[in-house]
Specification:
By secondary structure, the protein is mostly helical. It has helices at about 1-10, 10-35, 45-55, 65-75, 80-105, 110-125, 130-135, 140-160, 165-185, 195-200, 220-240, 245-260, 270-275, 280-285, 310-320, 325-335, 365-380, 385-390, 395-410, 415-435, 440-465.
Length: about 475
């Protein structure tokens, strides 16, 4: 009887076709959350958790996550509530973004609703670290989820705006919220601010498809800029955030590398040179701050070295002025270690570290969780999975190639898609400016976004074989 009713009423059948894949997506997210509850947390995560408990904040890690967590804790929630939101938002965002791309290229019917679900399942296979990143309480996870939703909302707004839909305003507010959150969560996300402003300009009602630039369309980008700086200022003042100058650890690492490469540069860095240990050269790791930090395994500087000393920072800027190529080489040395797969280096944090807060992962699904983790590690340690899911080089190359194709050859049905491709490229390159450790999670937001975009485009290619069709959203 129920099946007959569904078949008899096309509207019910249509709505079920839309709802069922989303429902399955949420169920998948809940399963991941239950197995890994309450979270994967490393030392950085626990520092942020401690700040949320005490209300004492600093900007070594941008404080927005700890501040929001503090309110969750006050309302009776916990870290598990945060990771529940993360996992559901991450999975549904991937599904919706993939579906939006299929619609962008005129894919319809069952393929439009169920192929994105298949792409999500591929990204959650035991050869991919995605599930463990979604369950990690760490700023990189918030950035990767933010990127997914920014890409989806940008494409979606462009789509519904052309139909004069009233839904555009709600989506527009959500888009700006996601952009602001990403900018507040990661210091280096500031490099994407121009792309965000461009997207808001292109999505404004003042923008037309003509090539003439109109100043009346830039108010949304300026609004984003204003909100970001206003919130940053208010967060520091209202929550008494202590400034720790984390950028100085990058300066010190780069100065160390410059001295290791050429000791003649000591004339620009007398302060640091006077504090080097005898084994500073062997202690140096390109792009890794450990040798100049108190917790480093081998110290490159003595205990009297102060990376926040004003004379040191002044000498760093002097070094840039007189030996910019030396600094650039050190930056490249660190960045180049972050891109390719590193078989012996972890792709995700596989546990909730011991702590004094009583936080521990549940024991109900411990055997399933541990087998899942060990299986993923084993799969990721072997090619080709190491290059597909365990490294960034392949996706960075594909990102650049797609940018060239879509930007120069104008293959995309709309310009917004091209701006989306700039997000992972610029974010990845931001680590050329400042690298603190060749940790996989740093560039993973770019890689994940590219994986969703690429697998969706491959689906379009397989289905339509790139037959020239006029996009419905550009009509």
């Amino acid at each position: 009887m129920f099946i007959e009713i569904i078949n008899f009423h096309p509207k019910i059948h249509y709505r079920l076709k839309k709802i069922i894949p989303v429902f399955i997506t949420i169920i998948i997210a809940l399963i991941i959350w239950g197995i890994c509850y309450p979270a994967f947390m490393n030392g950085d995560s626990l520092v942020q958790y401690g700040q949320a408990l005490t209300g004492n904040y600093d900007d070594w890690h941008p404080p927005i996550m700890a501040i929001l967590l503090q309110y969750v804790l006050k309302l009776g929630g916990g870290i598990g509530f945060i990771t529940l939101i993360q996992t559901v938002m991450g999975c549904t965002g991937i599904y919706l973004l993939s579906r939006e791309i299929l619609g962008l290229f005129n894919i319809s019917g069952r393929k439009y609703y169920y192929l994105p679900l298949l792409i999500l399942l591929i990204l959650l296979l035991p050869v991919s670290p995605l599930p463990f990143h979604l369950m990690a309480f760490i700023k990189d996870t918030w950035v990767e989820i933010g990127f997914i939703w920014i890409a989806y909302l940008s494409l979606h707004i462009y789509h519904i705006k052309t139909t004069q839909s009233k839904k555009a305003m709600l989506s527009f507010v959500s888009l700006i919220t996601c952009m602001i959150l990403v900018l507040l969560v990661r210091h280096n996300a500031i490099v994407i601010l121009p792309v965000f402003m461009l997207q808001l300009y292109l999505l404004s009602n003042s923008y037309t498809t003509t090539k003439k630039f109109k100043l009346s369309g830039i108010e949304n980008g300026l609004l984003l800029l204003l909100i970001y700086f206003f919130l940053s200022h208010q967060i520091y003042n209202s929550y008494h955030v202590i400034k720790t100058h984390p950028e100085n650890q990058v300066y010190a690492t780069e100065c160390l590398g410059v001295l290791v490469n050429n000791t003649d540069n000591k004339k620009y860095l007398p302060y640091m040179y006077s504090h080097l240990t005898p084994n500073y050269a062997t202690a140096y790791i390109p792009g890794n701050v450990a040798p100049i930090m108190w917790w480093g395994p081998i110290k490159a500087v003595d205990s009297a070295f102060n990376r926040n000393d004003s004379q040191f920072t002044a000498q760093y800027y002097n070094l840039i002025k007189h030996a910019p190529l030396s600094v650039l080489k050190v930056k490249w040395d660190g960045f180049s270690l972050m891109i390719p797969p590193r078989i012996k280096y972890h792709w995700f944090h596989p546990q909730l570290d011991s702590n004094n807060y009583g936080l521990a992962q549940n024991e109900y699904f411990r055997s399933i969780r541990m087998n899942w983790i060990s299986g993923t590690k084993h799969a990721l340690s072997a090619t080709p999975f190491a290059y597909i899911f365990g490294g960034h080089l392949l996706w960075f190359i594909l990102n650049i190639l797609l940018l060239v194709l879509f930007f120069i050859k104008k293959l995309s049905p709309n310009i917004i898609f091209t701006t989306v491709l700039f997000i992972p490229a610029l974010y990845c390159l931001s680590y050329l400016l400042a690298s603190t450790d060749p940790d996989f999670r740093f560039i993973y937001p770019s890689t994940l976004l590219m994986q969703v975009l690429f697998f969706s485009l491959i689906s379009v290619l397989v289905i339509s074989k790139l037959k020239p069709k006029r996009s419905t959203i550009s009509a």
